[in-house]
């Protein structure tokens, strides 16, 4: 018996060539008796249809849970923002009370009172009232500390910088309401008061 690839003489019944390693069982180099091994059978190289292709599980959820998305056949983890609470509110509540949710950011303390009186039943407005109150309380604290320590040079300058930052945070929060989201105010949103 000769090897079909290199022509070396082999003993009868040999499965592989001892010189080049070619398969002798079917007489063609590179083939084996198990088509699932080298030719990408359905369960070896291609993977089960529901595993690599993001197919449904028995419960209807794609493999990897709700945060996995497919991108060109590759599973990716979607980003979850813990400060974004938009999904907690209904779209009807957001669209009906968007204007009232803007008022606290525009008018400060007076806007908070107006928003609470006009939209008492809106959880979305109440969320933004809490965020606006956080900004207002921080602004008041910075103002009081700056006024008490006016005789120092650094504290009033730092207070002025903090006031500018709080104004920017208020503007960012206002535009988040314009886009219909419910995100905690930047920087001060992680403060534990007014939860």
Tell me about this structure.
The protein is mainly α and 195 residues long. It has 3 domains: 1-47, no CATH class; 50-80, no CATH class; 86-190, no CATH class. The chain has helices at residues 35-38, 91-107, 109-118, 123-148, 154-178; strands spanning 68-71, 74-77. Strands 1-2 form a two-stranded antiparallel sheet. A hairpin with a 2-residue loop joins strand 1 (68-71) and strand 2. Helix 3 (109-118) runs antiparallel to helix 4. The relative contact order is 0.08. Mean pLDDT is 76; it is low at 27-65.
Tell me the domain tally. 3
The N- to C-terminal Cα distance equals: 83 Å
Largest sheet: 2 strands, antiparallel
The total strand number stands at 2
Q: What share of the residues lie within helices?
A: 40-55%
* Beta-strand share of residues: under 5%
Q: Order of strands across the widest beta sheet?
A: 1-2
Shape: elongated
Order of helices and strands: HEEHHHH
Residue stretches low in confidence (pLDDT < 50, at least 5 long) are 27-65
Instruction: Output mean pLDDT.
Output: 76
Number of helices: 5
Helix vs. strand class: mainly alpha
Describe the secondary-structure layout:
Layout: H1 35-38, E1 68-71, E2 74-77, H2 91-107, H3 109-118, H4 123-148, H5 154-178
Antiparallel strand pairs: 1-2
List the defining traits of the structure above.
4% strand; 3 domains; mainly alpha; elongated; 195 residues; two-stranded antiparallel sheet
């Amino acid at each position: 018996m000769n090897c079909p690839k290199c022509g070396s003489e082999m003993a009868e019944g040999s499965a592989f060539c001892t010189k080049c390693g070619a398969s002798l069982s079917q007489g063609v180099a590179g083939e084996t008796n198990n088509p699932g091994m080298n030719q990408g059978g359905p369960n070896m190289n291609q993977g089960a249809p529901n595993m690599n292709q993001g197919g449904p599980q028995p419960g209807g959820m794609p493999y990897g849970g709700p945060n996995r998305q497919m991108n060109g056949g590759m599973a990716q983890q979607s980003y979850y923002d813990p400060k974004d609470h938009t999904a907690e509110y209904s779209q009807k509540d957001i669209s009906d009370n968007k204007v009232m949710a803007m008022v606290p950011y525009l008018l400060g303390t007076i806007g908070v009172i107006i928003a609470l009186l006009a939209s008492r039943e809106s959880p979305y407005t109440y969320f933004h009232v809490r965020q606006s109150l956080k900004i207002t309380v921080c602004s008041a604290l910075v103002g009081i500390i700056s006024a008490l320590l006016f005789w120092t040079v650094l504290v009033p300058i730092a207070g002025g910088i903090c006031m500018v930052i709080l104004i920017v945070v208020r503007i960012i929060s206002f535009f988040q309401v314009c886009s219909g989201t419910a995100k905690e105010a930047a920087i001060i949103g992680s403060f534990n008061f007014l939860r």
